[in-house]
Fold this protein.
Amino acid sequence: MKNKIIASIGIAVATTFILSIFAYFGVGETWHLKLSDGNFTRNEPSEEIVIVAIDPKSTSDQGLGRFYDWSRSYYAQVLDNIGKYNPKAVGIDLLFFNKSRGIDDKTLIDLYTNTKSAEDFAKQTSEYIKKDHPDDIKFAQSIEKAGNVVLAGVDVNGEVAKSIPLLTTAAKDTGLVNAMPDDDGIVRRVPLKNSLISKIAHLSEILVPQEDELIINYAAEPYQYKRISFVDAYNGDFGESAVKGKIVLIGPTDLSLQDVQFTPNAKTSPMPGVEVHANAIQTLIEGNVLSEQRFSNLATVLLVTALVAVVAFILLNIPLGIVAALVLMIAYTAAARYMFDKNVIWNMLYPYAAIILAYISTMIYRYWTEFKEKRFVSEAFGHYVSPEIVKELQRDPKKLKVGGENKVLTVMFTDIENFTTYSEKMTPEQITGLINEYMEYMTEIVLQNGGTLDKYEGDAIMAFFGAPIEQDDHAYRACKTALEMLKALPNLHQKWQAEGKPLLNFRAGIATGEVLVGNMGSRKRFDYTVMGDTVNLAARLEPANKEFNTRIMVNEKTARMCQGRLNFKELGEIKVKGKEDSVKVYTITSPQSSPVFPEQKSLS
């Protein structure tokens, strides 16, 4: 666990460090912006803003005609009609760079009548044209009379281009209307300092942040603000409530005039520029000024996200790990949405990248540690122990530590009777097929009872019980295995007899005692096996069955450990090679539960 904790912290820190570098240099910024645009879901235009729209109705032949032919007296008339109802402020999102030109018919006739020659007429006409145009004068007078009009200007390479001086002087102020589209062409922010927005806000007594730019918290989709058609405003065809005490913005909404922008909530159908200003002003009215997540905060979020992800991925299996990744992403999305509602735009790219990178890194770590170790366990023990034991070893590979340890286990040896005789009468192919079939049946019984197959030695099977998984009843498991192996023989005999094959029988020796168990061998090649006197004793008990005409022989400790579960008969004592003292041996008489050795109190 300690190694996993260290690995989790290391992976999380490395993930945070790498992604923080990318974030610091703005890598993937466009993707973050595109993903964060999904948070702009409001459609609640402010009741305090109304747009006088230069729309198709106004520019039609039934309206005021082609826009570029409009007289500035039209704007004067609109301002006069609006001004009667005391709007809070009026912003005109139009640029009047040039003076009006031309002479109306009445003025032209008067000049002609009052001049004596063609030369004088030309001179008078030239002098008249140099003067301010009556339409401009009329417009300027209406602007001045309103007293709350802000005209538009644009910043061109650091120089502010304004409307003609006559109009600029009459206006309350001039504000910039420059758009600031990001690299993907989406307008998410606008200049705030000296902007049309800030000038209108100041005029309307709305608090303006001391920032150079404003991230617009878009509150309405295109064409959702209350509108008055320009031609209706010109004709006075609107009610007092439509403009009284409100911020009025005059600007084009006719797409043919091309004053449109793509915005986070208008990526397919562009938004008129005047509505971009409306959204920006509403942002200031509501005080919902957005701000980007600070870098230090992002780094902290990345570290926490990566750490939670790594811990989940290390502790869970692959399917649950994938589920955990999805849950984390959903949780972060919800958190980011919550913060957006608190007017902070959290990064919508790197935390997800942190989860993915953490998953990949953790899987690589687990492959080189846990998965590789599990595969080793499966490959090394899959043929020697039951699948349940393999799973247990995979969950805790430490149970297979390199080297040995002394433990009390039960060892079992089985050997086929008279195998040499059979092998002399059969071809190698025949004897191999017969032995393989016998071994397959018997090995399956060993594994089903939780035994560990140690090795095959010719026709002999060596197995042990109680390791690598602890088994308190290892002696009983060994005896039960031997009994079930004997029980399986009649079915095999019936099959072999029908096939004309010899009928094999076996003897078993079982001994319980202390052994050295573990991975024995070199670092590159080793086997999980048992060693010691108990192993030798089990090997000696198997052939000793011949002396007593028995099939299964066990030592005294095995019989003691099976007390109450199996019946045993004492056979006597035998002398075992390598031991000075004789060994008391027993055979199993029945599997019924009954007291063991009722005549020997010392064994109860």
Observations:
- The two ends are 43 Å apart (CA to CA).
- The mean pLDDT is 88.
- The chain has three domains: 2-27+293-377, 40-97+147-290, 400-603.
- Residues 40-97+147-290 form one domain.
